[in-house]
Amino acid sequence: MYLGLDIGSTSLKAAAFDAQSGRLCGRSEEALPLAVDAGGRREQDPAALLEAVCRAFRSLREQTGSRWAHVCGIGLAAQGGSSIVVDRHTGEPATPMILWNDTRAFGHFHQILTRIPPRWWRSFSLRAEPGMGLARLQWLLEQHPDLLHGDRLWVGAGEFICFALTGIWRQDPCHALQSGCYDAQKNRITLQPMQRLELPSDWVAPLRPGHQTLPLAPRLADRLQLSAGTPVAGPYNDHEAGYLSVQHLSTRPLEVSLGTAWVGNFVLPEEARGGAPFQFCIPAPGGSGKQVILPLLTGNVTLDWALATFVHYDRASALAQADGILAHSLLPPPGLMALPWLNRPNALCPGRTGCAALFGLGPATTAEDMFRAVVSAMVLEFARVFEAVRKRGAVDSLVLCGGAAKNPHLCSLFAALFDPVPVHRVLEADLMGARGCLYPFDPEIAWAHAVPVSCDRGIDPRLLAAAQTLYQDLFERLCGQVAAGKPYAFYREYENEPA
Fold it and tell me: Rounded to two decimals, what is the model's pTM?
């Protein structure tokens, strides 16, 4: 039996799978409490995270009974970009875990970008901006200069739990990119950014070498009632693990993760030239080439806000009512459109957070209309960012997963926008990360199951085309100058990148 663990931004999922058939034998989910405030704080307690991991494994042990003695491998996937300062030798956290979507260091981020131009970052990271982790560490050290005392490391959720399991520090390439210390050209850690910003350059953990496993350490093995030395795979970035779970569905799938962040993941040959300022490029986890992980500047933070603001303050009630709203119509009235960049710096006032907008409001506009405008704009934003990827034939299918993919109406809007490209929806989407991180043990165990999504012929193609044109126009007028929002583009050489 294999155990898969996927640590997300708001919850962790653990699952047990039969080592022969891949059948699900047990599953557990733990909510991860989040400390938030109006100033952009997004923090979790690292010690509570470890306790949640242990509780989830204890639940699996109770569900699987005597089979627990036959666990032969553990896989670990985690969200990237979180920041914890820890003791290098014990792993004891010296700070809370600051999540990737914490906005308090945005001011430092803009200062760094002003001092060091995009071309320098792109020369090694293939991104037009610094990893947000650099700004976060700079901000942390200003707030708490005492952190400089002691033998420290600066790690994320995956590294923290990997060390707890194995006693060895290592990180995945995507987390290193988000932290700002990864050379995507040469697939190795780089200390140049840390040195240039006068940050502690010896605080960076080593890179995970391919799909190599590590032995489970005796201390946690005893606590989990597992055999010491059981191989542990990871840490994998959650999008890396997610892609490993769907790459069998077609030759060139575009995995669409509709979670806390909306992200597109696809693999290109090594010789392909293209990019977007906000992308993460890592070695393709299942073979040759490179995986492009491209987050949108929107996600379920925006969707949750729209549900609470326009539908109902109670989430369960909002979800039930939203289904009826979208069943009646997926598109807002003509002329009404949203820009869904809720959790981004204001394009007109960069010192402020919030770049979402509604355009076309009138006396007859209803709350349901505004909800439809936000939902459709999120899908239109995805289509805008990945238009060249679709037109170039770089992908041959869409695979929808993540929390929002459970809504059939939203899935049908994706199918209508990308028609005739086949669209699939993953079943048991919550377990993709937990399955995908088992790839080193057996690639077929990592496979997620999916079903086709039909193109909803009830969507008027003329209205959809008009909505797409209006969205593009609204975007260009309000945010066309924002470099981070530029879509993926193909070109011959990076030096010839479009402005």
Answer: 0.90
